[in-house]
Fold this sequence. Notes:
Number of domains: 1
Oligomer: single chain
Protein name: Soluble quino protein glucose dehydrogenase
Keywords: Signal
Distance between the termini: 11 Å
CATH class: Mainly Beta
Helix content: 10-25%
CATH superfamily: TolB, C-terminal domain
Structural class: mainly beta
Amino acid sequence: xxxxxxxxxxxxxxRAIAQSCPSLTATYPTPSVAAGYEARLIAQGLQKxxxxxxxxxxxxxxxxxxxxxxxxxxDSSGSCVSLKNKKTVVGDGTLxxxxxxxxDGKTLYASSLESxxxxxxxxxxxxxxxxxxxxxxxxxxQGTVTRTLLLARKAGNKLLVSRGGDENIxxxxxxxxxxxxxxxxxxxxxxxxxxxxxxxxGWGLRNAVGVAENPHDGGIWSAENNAxxxxxxxxxxxxxxxxxxxxxxxxxxxxxxPLLNKNYGYPLCYGVWNATDIPSAGRLQxxxxxxxxxxxxxxxxxxxxxDRQAPRLVFQPHTSPLDMKFDGKGENLYLSLHGSxxxxxxxxxxxxxxxxxxxxxxxxxxxxxNALTPILSNSNTTGCPGFCFRPAGLAxxxxxxxxMTSDNTGEIYVITKSGGKALDESRxxxxxxxxxxxxxxxxxFVGVVxxxxxxxx
Length: 457
């Protein structure tokens, strides 16, 4: 009798918990999650969601292409998260990727192909006051369209704006004054200025979509999407070269930053991933740079490795890193890898992590090909890019959970450690007051069942 009752109680409790934590179902194969992690699909039906950020009230703001900026309230307990009360914050369909927000929740920044705009924002109502103010313009290019934004907190909230090249191999970017393929620094409190009026942090960056500040020491990092269909000495080498790059730009707070205004190679020099596929590679190795000029390319390799700033790490070609976020201690850097579009065997399509040391640098050497550890991946990449998720934006909520947008599927995932524990343990744990009433109902149910069980004993 008691065994049967125990079985019934367990079944009812499991059913109650499952019903209290609804889970959406993807139309593609179930993603792979690394041991020690959990991932849950929590939103569908968005219009190409890209950049995301949480405000100081823990509302999630999302850039949806052709829509603008929308917001969600988060209803959660551990990894059991749902989004509710969606509303439009900024109805501007030209906004397409970048988003930033001051810590006090009062100033919102967003980017379009042409401009960076500033809005007066109210996090209590998730609304803006008036129209957006253009603070940076003259950003249009014919090729890359993203304009990543980053407020560098360790440098007094300087605004970094990343702009890609005008085409796959943009030869005009050899001139720093043109403004293509660069990251520039701005004072966001000033009025409207042209992009080329900003201070150059780094150039020779084909498309540095991912930009992040290490909270440990204020170091600035960028993740560069490298060129496609590269040739060297008349041979197509694009399958395994050039590498995607993680570049270090020093600390903005350092008045003598030796990396300020450094050139990182593009469009003349590119990172090595597989030297055996590069004609006349000589002694080139992983993490160094090679030239692609048709004449005497091997002679130009020396120029690339002495006159250009080398990447700190390299990643497999075509993985396409789009966003990256450090945890609160700067010990781990999480990257969204959007995935390949013109590689025979699809690669990327994951959220991965890089370990950092106390010196603010990656633990892996610059010659490593194993710096990335996937934590959320597509289980069957043969269907990519059409039949899988493609990671785009990343954001932390105040409880240490990591959120990821998938632009091609219009979805949002949340990632935690097993058991719903914070992925970033340096952030405050979820308070009892923030726990959803629906999950409290589970506790009530369990209590009632326990009482019944005690009665029968």
